[in-house]
Amino acid sequence: MKNRYLFFLLASTGWTMPALAQHELPITPATAAWGYYDAAAPPVLRIKSGETVRVHTLITSTPARLEGAGVPAADVEPALRDITEHVTNKGPGGHILTGPIFVEGAQPGDVLEVRVRSIDLAISYAYNAFGAKSGFIPEDFGYAKMKIVPLDKKKMVAHFLPGIDVPLRPFFGSMGVAPPAAAGRINSAPPGIHGGNLDNKELVAGTTLYLPVHVAGALFFVGDGHAGQGNGEVDITALETSLTGSLQFIVRKDMHLTLPRAETPTAYISMGLNEDLTLAAKDAVREMIAFLVAEKHLTRDDAYMLCSVAGDLNTTQVVDGTRGAHMMLPKSIFGKMPKQKAK
């Protein structure tokens, strides 16, 4: 109440809160991190907690591959040609990421809250592809194939085949912070405690991702744009495309996590990550139980039961080396919680 009174008092004198800066981060050879997350990567942008960045990302491919699959040369983004030609510091993974962004005040043990304000399609096509040794069932598809899929921004559908339109729900497949410095440079493909290539299709505009911080400044990377994806991402790719998004970054000193967590306007999301999908699923359940105990003040027994009667346990992806599972719990089930009786 005192803070609210102070705000109105200051407002009546003409004082206004200073506007938080909004930054623009293009994707260029100088701002691209090709295939890795690394605590030693130099920041390409420094921001304050609470500020927003409009970040540009690129499709994970090359001009030669896209043109070979049927994309007209004129439709290949100049930035992709520039990065493919000039970036030599790459690997061990294949994703073209933008970053890292240094968030002032973030320290190991904190949590970086990433609010996904908006996501826009940057080009009018996506691709889907599988390889002879990739995907969930390579034993059934011992060859490689790539399909270019037109994107209809007006109708927000992908024209997959005549008579088959897939609704678009664009999201960044990879959003993460630097891993602990001792880990060195890590492959951009497997997700982990740093987040990274989560490939969680729920992380669309309007959602929030919470990432444990491991190094000063957090060092946030983003990329692997998907116009849409199914749970599992079974052939190893989604509707791969270029995206532009507005992301707001907030340093949370009051939160402490060991794995990434998220929420949508309507649901809480816990995540589990492990090379064994069963173990990943177990961790997703344990993380939701921990959330319910800490944030909703349930007993562990009641939390476990609630997960069973109201939670949806999903397979996030099965193709990135480290498998992902996530549990979604609807916010609507939480009405007005009864107050604890005074002793």
Give the structure's gist in a few sentences.
The chain has 343 residues and is an alpha+beta fold. The protein is built from five helices and 21 strands.
Question: How are the secondary structure elements laid out?
Answer:
Layout: H1 2-12, E1 22-25, E2 32-34, E3 36-37, E4 45-47, E5 52-56, H2 63-68, H3 78-86, E6 96-103, E7 111-121, E8 125-130, E9 145-152, E10 157-161, E11 164-167, E12 171-177, E13 186-187, E14 195-196, E15 208-212, E16 220-226, E17 243-252, E18 261-263, E19 267-274, H4 277-295, H5 300-310, E20 312-317, E21 323-330
Parallel strand pairs: 1-5, 4-6
Antiparallel strand pairs: 2-6, 3-13, 5-17, 6-16, 7-15, 7-17, 8-9, 9-10, 10-11, 12-14, 12-16, 15-18, 18-19, 19-21, 20-21
Helix pairs in contact: 4-5
Separation, N- and C-terminal Cα atoms = 27 Å
Gyration radius from CA atoms, angstroms = 21 Å
Low-pLDDT regions: 1-17
Relative strand content: 25-35%
Give your account of this protein's structure:
With 343 residues, the protein is an alpha+beta fold. 16% of the residues lie in helices and 34% in strands. It has helices at residues 2-12, 63-68, 78-86, 277-295, 300-310, and strands at residues 22-25, 32-34, 36-37, 45-47, 52-56, 96-103, 111-121, 125-130, 145-152, 157-161, 164-167, 171-177, 186-187, 195-196, 208-212, 220-226, 243-252, 261-263, 267-274, 312-317, 323-330. The strands form four sheets. It has a nine-stranded mixed sheet with strand order 1-5-17-7-15-18-19-21-20. A hairpin with a 2-residue loop joins strand 10 (157-161) and strand 11. The chain starts with a helix and ends in a 13-residue tail after the last strand.
